[in-house]
Amino acid sequence: MIEPIHQDVLNWFLYFTFSSFIGWLLETGWRSMRERKFVNSGFLSGPFVPIYGFGALSIAFLARMAARANGFMFWVILVIAPTVLEYVASWLLEKSFGLRLWDYRSEPFNLKGRVCLLFSGFWAVLTVIAISVVEPFLLERITGIVLFTRYFLTGAFLMYFAMDTVWSVRSLINFKTFIAELKEVAARGGAFLPSLELGARRLPREIRRLLKPLKAFPSLVGELKPMLHAIPEWVTSRLESIVGGRHFLK
Fold this sequence. Notes:
With 250 residues, the chain is mostly helical. It has helices at residues 7-35, 50-65, 71-97, 117-143, 147-187, 205-216, 221-224, 233-243, 245-249, and strands at residues 110-111, 115-116.
């Protein structure tokens, strides 16, 4: 007989999901203001940034583990946790894909470009807000949802995360493959000849496959910049207009 999922697991998974959505709102709002256009931020295609969800869960569990610590140590542990998570996530993603998805080397007081003082300060403020406001607010509403609906939402979101993760991972693998092939072409002194679509000045299919990773992680432009001379100028101009010219100038 299959045992039903414990309600605590349902509640914490939904807390992870809603925290990921809040993270998407923050990231998208921040980047859209900087870029002065709408930017769908994050690794996934949908409106979720999972690292915020993992961060919220880590903070919640650490808060319970450190509950007996004195007030000062309690908050020191919690405000450091998101920065540690960001560093570990950056390292794991770089080891997994061979790509640096975010890069703070242009920011002062950074550690190997994986974390920096400015954003660590943001995470510290968000940690205090998460513990004091977000966690009690969300958990109260989640536990108030009918149990059947919580099961349904958990199943639906699990399916979504699985499909979106597969698609997003594939887009990064395609990006890495294209960069490797472009390096070979550029090393031989050749040029990338895109497959043009007759009757339209659309970006070629090979380049369109790069758009999702580039728009989600503009720092990946750094992987492309050394080979831009091997790409037709009109393609580069279109990429700059889509991704944001300032990322090509860094």
